[in-house]
User: Which sequence fits this backbone?
């Protein structure tokens, strides 16, 4: 078989190709090689590199271009399968082996993927054995992730944003935090990775991200810079939400940016909340509320009674309400704002006067000694 220099689909190392199945000497991952690669070798290597960088959509586009100009090849179709499920091969620190990690869980089994099945049909016996084993390995991880995701309670809203840029927290993160606090005070269950995933250190985030993307009827995409909309993990989230929206038209995306021209081409002519206004977060939260309000019915939100300082669920449409705890009447708008400020301040760091340990303030007291702060 005549081939030019081709790089490993997993680590990018140069492969020594002697047959249609080749094991990378750098990472140990088995690659399948098909057809006369001279016509598309540069494009293939470029696409593989993008996929290794988790730029799955961009890589998939190049694989499609190769297939449009050539007969179908099993290696290209298998690579498209890896893109479709967001597969990244990561070195295991214990064994040193490169193992698959999923960044795009789907309900549909990888073993039923049309790209995978077509690749199988085009494989020789040795190739078929190798990609079948690889697909079954990924399927086991997929099943594990789906089981975790199935135990998550459904979300109302998914906030999509870029957390850091060159090691520094972005303005988007601060905007997202303010929006999270307000939506949380309104009684919504919100996925905001900075908060939602903070107790998930040391485990895979993907099952929790998938559960939120799938269940949330609303996504908010924040971008104070145009390039933030196209950041790898930001785009990974909103592009997946768009695919889910194709199956469920009731899903809706809201945008928040400094300039409407900053929106990606995929969202051209869409409306967006401009963040330069002092009331932008309030306006955005109210727009989300209007969308989620079921058939014009009442949506219960959090309110803090000004007399007994206790939180309760109320209908924000009413001008006044009677506290269920102290039976006193209060102004709803003020009580909702007080609840928002109270839940926001809970994230302030405090030192327990009893045990001396630092923690985030909460409604229940010290999380270590359980005494009131």
Assistant:
């Amino acid at each position: 078989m005549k081939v030019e220099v081709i790089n490993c689909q997993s680590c990018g190392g140069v492969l020594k190709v002697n047959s249609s199945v080749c094991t990378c000497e750098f990472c140990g991952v088995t690659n399948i090689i098909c057809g006369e690669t001279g016509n598309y070798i540069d494009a293939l290597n470029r696409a593989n590199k993008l996929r290794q960088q988790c730029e799955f959509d961009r890589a998939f586009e190049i694989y499609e271009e190769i297939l449009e100009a050539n007969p179908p090849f099993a290696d290209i179709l298998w690579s498209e399968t890896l893109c479709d499920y967001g597969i990244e091969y990561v070195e295991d620190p214990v064994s040193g082996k490169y193992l698959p990690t999923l960044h795009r869980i789907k309900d549909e089994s990888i073993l039923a993927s049309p790209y995978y099945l077509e690749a199988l049909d085009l494989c020789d016996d040795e190739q078929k054995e190798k990609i079948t084993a690889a697909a079954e390995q990924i399927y086991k991880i997929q099943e594990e992730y789906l089981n975790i995701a199935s135990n998550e309670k459904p979300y109302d809203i998914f906030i999509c944003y870029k957390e850091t840029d060159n090691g520094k927290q972005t303005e988007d993160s601060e905007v997202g935090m303010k929006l999270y606090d307000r939506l949380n005070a309104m009684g919504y269950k919100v996925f905001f990775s900075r908060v939602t995933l903070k107790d998930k250190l040391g485990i895979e985030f993907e099952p929790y991200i998938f559960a939120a993307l799938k269940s949330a009827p609303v996504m908010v995409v924040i971008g104070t810079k145009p390039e933030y909309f196209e950041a790898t993990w930001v785009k990974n989230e909103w592009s997946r939400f768009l695919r889910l929206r194709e199956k469920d038209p009731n899903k809706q995306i809201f945008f928040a940016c400094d300039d409407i021209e900053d929106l990606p081409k995929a969202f051209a002519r869409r409306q967006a909340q401009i963040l330069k206004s002092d009331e932008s977060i309030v306006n955005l939260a109210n727009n989300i509320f209007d969308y989620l309000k079921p058939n014009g019915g009442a949506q219960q939100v959090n309110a803090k009674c000004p007399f007994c300082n206790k939180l309760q669920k109320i209908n924000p449409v009413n001008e006044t309400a009677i506290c269920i705890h102290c039976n006193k009447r209060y102004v709803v708008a003020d009580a909702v704002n007080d609840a928002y400020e109270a839940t926001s301040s809970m994230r302030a760091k405090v030192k327990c006067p009893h045990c001396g340990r630092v923690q985030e303030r909460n409604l229940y007291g010290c999380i270590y000694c359980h005494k009131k702060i």
About this structure: The mean pLDDT is 85.
